[in-house]
């Protein structure tokens, strides 16, 4: 759970580098030996994602932006994916809500993943959850992403070499990290990616002046802006609006011209559909504008 009242496990200065070890989202202490096997966990009853933190960043205040620079992201040696057997609108629509839950068990070698059926995929690891607690007191679920402070963003663009910019929600930021994904498709359509433990090295900075509002990122693949909302239209408009803002400032354009330029260069993608809130991200691919 997210909570502003949980004491930090470590306090750092802006600009410090931190190496974070996180278990998979379910908090498995031991690897599965067969797909779907129940193994010991940190918490016997799952309440949300198993996260590492909070990390306090001294001097962070609401109104600032926390820059999370992902310097290195290394997955563990195994991971899992599960789908179906869950009663929500998408599983019902896909006619798998009442089917038996299906598991893939992955062997991860740092470059590729291989499941028990022999399917092989190239890994592109990132953290699904990167965020700060809401300003309101009490405990808050880790499942939905939030427009302020981040959380369960689940964006596969946030690989090593990326910088994620999060509006600070509480004093000292109280950042939590986890939910390692060795690979995921846009949308995380089955509800899970290749869920795995992760070792992540991040540099944490504080900034006060950014060209885009809300949560946004600079990644090897391009500039990224986000929208999160229960309404897909609103999520889309938020992500696209932030990208238009960015283009206005970076290219010194009026707003109609920035939108026209976006229409020729920007890709809209569904970030995730699994987490009670629609996620949309707009991408201005690297090198598309010369």
From the helix content, strand content and strand pairing, which structural class follows? Answer: mainly beta
Query: DSSP strand (E) fraction?
Result: 35-45%
Task: Count up the helices.
Answer: 3
Low-confidence stretches: none
Helix content bin: 10-25%
Form type: globular
End-to-end span in angstroms? Answer: 44 Å
H and E order: EEEEHEEEEEEEEEEHHEE
Largest sheet: 16 strands, mixed
For the residues shown, what is the average pLDDT?
Answer: 95
- The total strand number stands at 16
Mind telling me the C-alpha Rg? 19 Å
Brief summary:
With 290 residues, the chain is mostly beta strands.
Structural account:
The chain has 290 residues and is mainly β. The chain contains three helices and 16 strands. The chain has helices at residues 89-93, 232-251, 255-265, and strands at residues 10-12, 17-22, 51-57, 65-83, 102-108, 112-115, 120-122, 126-131, 150-152, 163-167, 175-181, 195-207, 216-219, 222-229, 267-272, 278-285. It has a 16-stranded mixed sheet that branches. Strand 5 (102-108) and strand 6 (112-115) form a beta hairpin. The protein is globular, with a radius of gyration of 19 Å. The model has no long low-confidence stretch (mean pLDDT 95).
């Amino acid at each position: 759970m997210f909570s502003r009242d949980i004491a930090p496990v470590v306090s750092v200065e802006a600009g410090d580098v931190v190496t974070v070890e996180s278990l998979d989202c379910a908090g498995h202490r031991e690897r599965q030996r067969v797909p779907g096997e129940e193994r010991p966990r940190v918490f016997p009853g799952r309440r949300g994602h198993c996260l590492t933190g909070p990390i306090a960043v001294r001097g962070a205040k609401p109104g600032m932006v926390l820059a999370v620079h992902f310097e290195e992201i290394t997955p563990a040696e195994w991971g899992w994916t599960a789908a179906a057997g869950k009663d929500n609108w998408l599983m019902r629509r896909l006619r798998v809500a009442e089917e038996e839950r299906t598991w893939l068990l992955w062997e991860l070698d740092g470059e590729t993943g291989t499941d028990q059926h022999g399917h092989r995929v190239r890994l592109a690891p990132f953290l699904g959850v990167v965020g700060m607690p809401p300003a309101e007191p009490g405990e808050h679920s880790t499942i939905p992403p939030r427009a302020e402070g981040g959380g369960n963003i689940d964006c596969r663009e946030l690989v090593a070499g990326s910088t994620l910019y999060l509006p600070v929600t509480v004093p000292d930021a109280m950042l939590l990290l986890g939910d390692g994904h060795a690979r995921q498709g846009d949308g995380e359509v089955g509800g899970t990616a290749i869920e795995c433990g992760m070792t992540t090295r991040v540099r944490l900075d504080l900034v006060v002046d950014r060209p885009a509002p809300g949560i946004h990122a600079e990644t090897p693949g391009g500039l990224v802006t986000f929208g999160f909302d229960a309404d897909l239209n609103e999520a889309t408009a938020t992500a696209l609006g932030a990208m238009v803002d960015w283009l206005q400032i970076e290219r010194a354009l009026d707003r109609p011209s920035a939108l026209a330029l976006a229409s020729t260069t920007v890709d809209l993608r569904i970030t995730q559909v699994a987490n009670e809130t629609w996620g949309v991200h707009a991408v201005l691919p690297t090198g598309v504008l010369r």
